[in-house]
Design goal:
Blueprint lengths: L1 H10 L2 E4 L3 H13 L4 E6 L6 H13 L6 E6 L6 H7 L6 E5 L6 E5 L3 E8 L2 E7 L2 H17 L1 E2 L9 H4 L2 H10 L3 H8 L3 H15 L4 H10 L17
Parallel strand pairs: 2-3, 3-4
Antiparallel strand pairs: 1-7, 2-5, 4-8, 5-6, 6-7
Helix pairs in contact: 2-3, 7-9, 7-10, 8-9, 9-10
C-alpha cells in the first residue's frame, strides 16, 4: 500500500493527500528525503498542519537535513523560538524570516515538487504538486515575500528582567511618537535611561529610526500590527 501510494505521488502532477496529520506528515517526509539543493517552507498563521510541518522539519534537520539550504517564512504567531534557537546557528544553512503571508502552509523541494496545505470552505485540503508551472508561481510568490521579510534569527532580549519588561511599552511609545521626556515619565525611568534602552532596541532590530523600530517590532509580533486606538473624547 505504501509503495503504491509513493508510485502514485511520483507519477501524478497533482495528488491529493488525506487531510489528517499522519498523512501530511508522511507526504512531507517523502518530499524531504528527495531534497538535494534547497527547501522553502511557508507557515502562515492558523493555516492547516503548521505544527505537523514544524515537527517534520525539526526531525529532518536533527537527522542530517541541515546540509540542504532551507528557508522558512513564518507569520508572527507561527515563529517557534525554540526551533529557531536549536537550528539557526552560524554555518547552518537554515534561515527563518517573519512576514505577512498568505493563509497556507507549504513545503517546496528543489523548485520541482511541493506539498501545499490550506483551509477552504469545504474544509482542510492537502496536495502534492509536481506541475512546473504551478510550482514556479509558488516559488516566485515565496521569493518575493522572502526579500522583504525580517530575520527571526534573534529575539529581542535586553538581559535583566527589569529591562525586558520595559521592551513592549517602550516600543509602543516609539511607534506612537511620544517624546523621550513624556515616555520616560510614564515609565518611571530617567530620560537618560530611556534613551539608552531605545538605542539598544533599535540596534537589536536593525532599525535606522525610531518609527522603523516600532514597525519592525509589529512585524516580528512584539507588538500588535494595529496600534491601540485612543478612546474618543465626548463632545462638550
Amino acid at each position: 500500500m505504501v509503495k503504491h501510494r509513493d508510485r502514485q505521488l511520483r507519477n501524478s502532477w497533482v495528488a491529493a493527500v488525506e487531510a489528517d496529520d499522519k498523512e501530511v506528515h508522511a507526504a512531507a517526509q517523502d518530499l524531504l528525503r528527495t531534497a538535494t539543493e534547497r527547501v522553502d517552507v511557508v507557515l502562515a498563521a492558523e493555516a492547516a498542519h503548521v505544527h505537523v510541518l514544524h515537527g517534520v522539519l525539526d526531525g529532518w534537520l536533527r537527522s542530517g537535513g541541515g546540509t540542504v539550504r532551507t528557508r522558512m517564512l513564518c507569520a508572527q504567531n507561527t515563529v517557534d523560538w525554540g526551533f529557531v534557537q536549536r537550528h539557526v546557528r552560524d554555518g547552518n544553512p537554515l534561515e527563518v524570516r517573519v512576514a505577512r503571508i498568505p493563509l497556507l502552509a507549504a513545503l517546496i523541494v528543489d523548485g520541482r515538487a511541493a506539498l501545499v496545505c490550506a483551509d477552504s470552505a469545504a474544509g482542510r485540503r492537502a496536495s502534492t504538486l509536481r506541475d512546473s508551472g504551478v510550482i514556479e508561481t509558488l516559488q516566485t510568490l515565496f521569493d518575493g515575500i522572502w526579500r522583504t521579510a525580517l530575520s527571526a534569527s534573534e529575539r529581542v532580549e535586553l538581559g535583566e528582567r527589569s529591562r525586558g519588561e520595559l521592551v513592549r511599552p517602550i516600543l509602543e511609545r516609539l511607534r506612537l511618537g511620544a517624546t523621550d521626556e513624556v515616555a520616560a515619565r510614564e515609565l518611571a525611568v530617567s530620560v537618560r535611561t530611556y534613551r539608552r534602552y531605545v538605542a539598544e532596541i533599535m540596534a537589536l532590530l536593525g532599525a535606522n529610526s525610531r518609527f522603523q523600530a516600532g514597525v519592525r517590532a509589529a512585524e516580528l509580533g512584539l507588538l500588535p500590527m494595529t496600534p491601540p486606538q485612543e478612546p474618543q473624547k465626548p463632545w462638550r
